[in-house]
Amino acid sequence: MARPIIVAVHGIGQQFKADSVIHAEWWPSLLGGLHLAGFTGLKPDDLACAFYGHLFRQAGALSAFEAPHSHSLDQQELTLLDFLWHSAAQTEPKRVPAAADFAAGRTMAATPQVVQRALNALAKSSFCAGIAPNMMLGNLKQVVRYLNEPDIRRKAKDSVLSLIGPETRVVVAHSLGSVVAYEALCERCENVKSFVTIGSPLGIPNLIFDRLRPSPGALRIGQWPGKVEHWTNIADSGDIVANPKKLQPLFGDPLRDIPVHNGSDAHHGERYLTAVETGRALAEGLWTAS
């Protein structure tokens, strides 16, 4: 069976979906962005969606997404929650109250009340509007589990690598999926020409960037992903996950950082895909495959 021309990698909170569901949601948006960029001729089978969401779905029990929790977090989860609160407060200061520096115990202990305060503050942001606290915490925990649990990390990367073959020219990845895809491409990229990251948290210091595999090392410059020729990072100024917005200082001059505007739902993957800027970045790796 021929490998796809484009491999797409989803982000967090997809554990109750499947590769076919992600394909049905992403295909029209991806095609729309490409059409705006002047590229036509792709067929649905040219896109394959790596799926790793099921790794966060507990068998025979409530998932972390559903289960009631005490709002107790470990230090890494707390630090990530603190980071998102600061990011949201900087992005929307009129909506989100100023963040308290609680992650390292600078002003207060990490009590359930403090966590609830952070969740209440984030709930006022456009990013988290309508998201229940349990859902927010469950999604946050997925990031930390990927980084901490070797089995999940390995299987998530394998979901990407199993789809990449000689015909694959482009990998596009959203949110946590950009971390999964980056690490996978550092292991093997075959003929992938373009890597497109949308709403990426790859640059979050300490929490993600400094824990990448391979490690950035003492110079704190991330390894270039294999033989990829073009890496385009696309971020909305209101996307609190894609912070910092620019990855070029962390991964080298060939990387291009491009801003877009996604409206009120700044982190939404399909809004990123419909942008002409994303379409152009995808098309760059497809011209030789058409």
Q: What is the number of independent domains?
A: 2
Number of strands: 6
**β-strand amount:** 5-15%
Q: Biggest sheet, open or closed, and with what strands and sense?
A: 6 strands, parallel
Could you give the order of strands across the largest sheet? Answer: 2-1-3-4-5-6
**Mean pLDDT across residues:** 90
Return Rg in Å.
18 Å
Question: What is the count of DSSP helices, taking H or I runs of 4+ residues?
Answer: 9
Going by CATH, the architecture of the largest domain would be 3-Layer(aba) Sandwich
Poorly predicted spans:
63-70, 104-109
Query: How far apart, in Å, are the first and last alpha carbons?
Result: 19 Å
**Structural class by helix and strand composition:** alpha/beta
CATH superfamily of the largest domain: Alpha/Beta hydrolase fold, catalytic domain
The fold-level CATH name of the largest domain is Rossmann fold
Which percent range fits the helix content?
A: 25-40%
Shape: globular
Q: Helix-strand pattern, N to C?
A: EHEHHHHEHEEHEHH
CATH first level of the largest domain: which class? Alpha Beta
